[in-house]
Amino acid sequence: METENTIKILLVDDEVKFLKAISDRLAIKGFEVTTADNGEDAIAAARQGRFDVAVLDLQMPGMDGTQVLKILKQNHKYIEIIMLTGHATVDSAVECTKLGAFKYLEKPYDFNKLVEALKEAYHARMEKKFESDLKRMEAIQKLSLHQSPLGLLKSLAKLDDSEK
Amino acid sequence: MEDPKELFSYDDLAFFGRVNASISHELKNIMAIVSETAGFLGDLAEMASAGTPVDSEMLKSNADSIMEEIQRGFTTIRQMNRFSHSVDAPIVSVDLMELLELVCHLSAYLAFSGTVRLAPWNGNSPLVQTCPFLLQAIVYDIVVQQFKHAGPDAALDINVESRSDSGWGIVFSNLRIAERQGFPDDQIKKAAASIAVIIDWDRTGDHLELHVPSTI
């Protein structure tokens, strides 16, 4: 059953059997997992649902993991991303980190370490969101002191537009 | 003819490395699936010990999945072994169909792989005396260029035809690399020349033929 604190994960890998195996395990551990076997579907899924953490394979047919990472970070302000790859290189690790990846793990990996990384990423996401909400509340407080109700509504709409 | 040992260059070593990297990626994926599925069975066992009912069909399907992946691993290792042995001797007797089947399998390990359809051969094995490693490198490059330019949804057809001069033609159809003016590059031209393979390609069409002599 979904609760307020269920961590929502978007898992992306072109190996369908791997997706099935890992999502079954993560579900037992209490994560809510959505899977996609290509980059395009992952981006579409992220548009439709809210995810706390995305786990991305690096090399996939069509759009690769780096491109998906870039687009998800652009369009979803708070999502954290873990790269999980069988093609690990120093260059790709540096590139993914520069693009905002939270962690870079290489296959084969320890499942417990992945679970730990998912929880850390979730906490990082919540902190970012909390700080942003705090700033937003401060901004609303300031606006409400100096503006008419209509002006306040317009300013709030502008604030919302800047939130992705 | 050149000293057979001179046939191999640094570029060929790089090709050997690229293919091995793609095989190791395949093996990593297999190991990851086996590891996760075995872990999942362990999780289910723990649940059963704690008194939670566990569906026996789920246990069976996960055990089957592990067996399938182990078989996939054996197949991959067999192909890796065949590929590795292709450098044992520079010039040997080669069954073209076996060589093409191996290249088709190896290219499927690439993350951006598409479909390759190898037409079956009916009759006596198409045997040639050649350097299997270099012929593999040439065929592999054509297949990879196709994947890069046509995308994962396109299909490439390959068939072997007997030629009247006692040589063989490896014919590639539905080729979508016509716009790539740099193909074949110097490395492939050099490899082809060293084993007397002629690359016959009409750039306006979608056909390319490798003419492979029966012996060099």
Could you walk me through the main structural features you see in this protein, from its secondary elements to its overall organization?
The complex is a heterodimer of chains A (164) and B (216). By secondary structure, chain A is an alpha/beta fold. In chain A, 56% of the residues lie in helices and 15% in strands. Chain A has helices at 16-28, 39-48, 65-75, 90-98, 111-146, 149-161; strands at 8-12, 32-36, 53-56, 80-85, 103-106. In chain A, strands 2-1-3-4-5 form a 5-stranded parallel beta sheet, sandwiched between helices. Chain B has helices spanning 10-49, 56-85, 96-107, 132-150, 186-194; strands at residues 92-95, 115-118, 127-130, 155-162, 168-173, 198-201, 208-212. In chain B, strands 2-4-5-7-6 form a 5-stranded mixed beta sheet, covered by helices on one side. In chain B, a hairpin with a 5-residue loop joins strand 4 and strand 5 (168-173). In chain B, helix 1 (10-49) runs antiparallel to helix 2 and helix 3 packs across helix 4 (132-150). The model of chain B has no long low-confidence stretch (mean pLDDT 89). The interface between A and B is medium-sized, with 20 and 22 residues.
Secondary structure layout:
The complex is a heterodimer of chains A (164) and B (216).
Chain A lengths: L7 E5 L3 H13 L3 E5 L2 H10 L4 E4 L8 H11 L4 E6 L4 H9 L4 E4 L4 H36 L2 H13 L3
Parallel strand pairs in A: 1-2, 1-3, 3-4, 4-5
Helix pairs in contact in A: 2-3, 5-6
Chain B lengths: L9 H40 L6 H30 L6 E4 H12 L7 E4 L8 E4 L1 H19 L4 E8 L5 E6 L12 H9 L3 E4 L6 E5 L4
Parallel strand pairs in B: 2-4
Antiparallel strand pairs in B: 1-3, 4-5, 5-7, 6-7
